[in-house]
Amino acid sequence: MTRPPTAAQRRIIDAADPETGRITGSETQLARLVVLKLAFRHPRPPHAHFLTPEGHRLREAGPELPPPPEPEAQRDGRFRARLGGEPDAVASPARAREVRTAWQGLLEIRRMTNPDGALDRPCAWERGRLEHAAALALEAAGREPASTAAPGYRVTSTPQPEAVSVHHPDAAGLAACAATLTEAGWQVSEHAGKRGERWLLASPRRT
């Protein structure tokens, strides 16, 4: 595919039959999707058009939207989700506003890209950015990230697909993180390490 589909082409792709991938539209629109390798024309009558594997992937990924500001304002002015451990993680009214804006942007992406418009379930954008998505959910709920000045949560990657680990130095803080992520649509389980330390395994809920 040399360029993204137009809004009209995108609507045809999004309206495809979820089981067969059959699409409908004008002959010109369908022919263009064939050129883009997002659809193919069946050789037998009635010569219906269907999504190709690439077309299916595009449909399942949802429309490309500007992501919510992506993880603490840095020199480039971009927002950065605090995973915990940042030396300059300073709470401020400006930071609180940035977090609220980022969280509202994420909810809008959920509304527009989840098939049923659900706001209580993570979307594909989050599943592609697990650590940042989990950290944003925690910070948006008022949880404090770990810093050089104070204890707090830490979000790290794991070898497991679609899962992150969340650590907190005290049991109450860990329980609060578990409740926050569960409310944000994550599936959470608590585990104990060999030395008795407790931590969470969290993954985006799909249903």
TrEMBL record:
**Name of the featured protein:** Uncharacterized protein
Top-level taxonomy: Bacteria, Bacillati, Actinomycetota, Actinomycetes, Kitasatosporales
- Positions of the UniProt region annotated as Disordered: 1-24, 46-75, 143-164
